[in-house]
Design a protein that fits this description.
The protein is of the alpha/beta class and about 375 residues long. It folds into 2 domains: about 5-250, TIM Barrel (Alpha-Beta Barrel), CATH 3.20.20; about 305-380, Arc Repressor Mutant, subunit A (Orthogonal Bundle). Helices cover about 40% and strands about 25% of the residues. It has 15 helices and 16 strands. The protein has helices at about 35-50, 70-85, 110-115, 130-135, 140-150, 170-185, 200-205, 210-230, 245-255, 285-290, 310-315, 325-330, 340-350, 365, 370-380; strands at about 5-10, 15, 25, 55-65, 90-100, 120-125, 160-165, 190-195, 230-235, 240, 255-260, 265-270, 275-280, 295-300, 350-355, 360. The strands form 4 sheets. The chain has a 9-stranded mixed sheet with strand order 9-10-8-7-6-5-4-1-11, with helices on both faces. Strands 12-13-14 form a 3-stranded antiparallel sheet, with no helix packed on it. The protein has a two-stranded parallel sheet with strand order 2-3. Helix 2 links the parallel strand 4 (about 55-65) and strand 5 (about 90-100). The longest helix is centred in the N-terminal third of the chain and has 19 residues, at about 35-50.
């Protein structure tokens, strides 16, 4: 089996750094160096081309930061240059993350003309007070306007990014956010709990968040509402209507390969000859990344065989579709005998079920997913 290949492109700038964000993003203080950065991305990709090993790209994802600070013309030129270096699959998915604020993106129709065929809209909430608490610079009305525009220009594939468990949030407020997203006829909703990450403002000055019992009520009631509305819960925090699962993110969770270009980007690729799996990291600081006297790549690490079972499971168990032992062997290059005892133990605990050769997490396993993953960390 040929391991699928994707491309991640990191745009490290944003208008304002959010207090909960631990991504490699930097508040834009001066004019964005668009031309220089896009040219550097291509030079970065040229050095990574051997990792592609003549495979076509099945998806491209512009993440950040705020990728929509890059102009549509810049995106179009970049995509053309990438296509000259590496072939695109006929049904390639090309996603652009964007925030709803008008100062954070150009015209959405121009992005569509540039080649973007999927938008991921960082709404986070439809409650202006909650948006203020999150440090967002857009308001709910701007989000609704952006969604109306996506429908008007027939941008049929888009995602609404929502968080729950926000400072001071009630069950009713969380459900109202979710209901609003559903009413907007979003074909895909990423809905996940706000977590406090190290090296963030929220970590230094923690807000008061809902307790565990309320958070669990929000999760359970929200999943019911989404299921009733026709959304399939296909990954821990991803819900999609039929035909709208995210190809790019699903490739991550399937333990597929991806090239990563841009400041702070990381990648994973399988050497198709040796079956070794390697991880790459690019220099994080944008000024260092743009410096022609410095290297893009900070390191390439071969994943030790002893770590592969846990690495595979940390990704694959996030998907609820199930996997076979053959899937495991093809993606890791290992024999499945090393994980059968752990899978058997997880079945006995009621965390995993086996149906027609497919292993998948049970409802109990979903609730205690971190514990299930820990079994492979400790037992692999």
């Amino acid at each position: 089996m040929l391991i699928p290949l994707s491309l991640y492109i990191h745009i490290p700038w944003c208008i304002k750094k959010c207090p909960y964000c631990d991504f490699n993003s930097h508040a834009l203080k001066n004019t964005l160096p668009e031309v220089a950065y896009l040219d550097t991305l291509i030079e970065d990709l040229k050095l990574d081309l051997p990792f592609a090993q003549n495979r076509k790209l099945q998806s491209i994802f512009f993440g950040g930061g705020t990728p929509s600070l890059i102009s549509p013309n810049g995106i179009e030129n970049l995509l053309c240059n990438i296509a000259n270096l590496i072939a695109f699959d006929d049904n390639i998915e090309i996603t652009l993350e964007t925030n709803p604020g008008t100062v954070e993106h150009f015209d959405l129709a121009d992005y569509k003309r540039a080649g973007i065929n999927r938008i991921s809209l960082g709404a986070q909430s439809f409650d202006d007070q909650k948006l203020k608490a999150l440090g967002r610079i857009h308001c709910a009305a701007e989000t609704l306007t952006a969604i109306e525009k996506l429908h008007r220009i027939n941008f049929n594939s888009f995602n609404i990014d929502l968080m729950h468990g926000l400072p001071g949030q009630t069950l009713e407020q969380a459900m109202q956010d979710l209901t609003t997203a559903i009413d907007c006829q979003a074909p895909h909703i990423s809905w996940y709990q706000l977590t406090i990450e190290p090296n963030t403002v929220f970590h230094k000055y923690p807000p008061r968040l809902p307790n565990d019992e309320l958070t669990w009520q929000i999760q359970m009631q929200g999943e019911t509402i989404l299921a009733t509305a026709g959304f399939k819960h296909y990954e821990v925090s991803a819900f999609a209507k039929a035909g709208h699962t995210c190809t790019h993110n699903k490739n991550y969770w399937d333990f597929g390969d991806y090239l990563g270009i841009g400041a702070g980007a990381h990648g994973k690729y399988t050497d198709l000859n040796t079956k070794e799996i390697k991880r790459t990291n690019k220099t994080r600081n944008p000024s260092d990344y743009l410096n022609p006297d410095k290297k893009f790549m900070t390191n390439i690490v071969t994943v030790a065989k002893a770590e592969l079972p846990s690495e595979y499971m940390l990704n694959r168990l996030r998907l609820f579709s199930g996997f076979t032992l053959l899937d495991y062997e093809q993606h890791t290059g290992l024999s499945s005998t090393g994980i059968t005892k752990i899978l058997d133990a997880a079945q006995q605990d009621g965390f995993i079920k086996l149906t027609d050769q497919y292993y998948s997490v049970t409802d109990l396993g979903k609730r205690f997913l971190n514990d299930v993953m820990q079994m492979f960390l400790s037992g692999a």
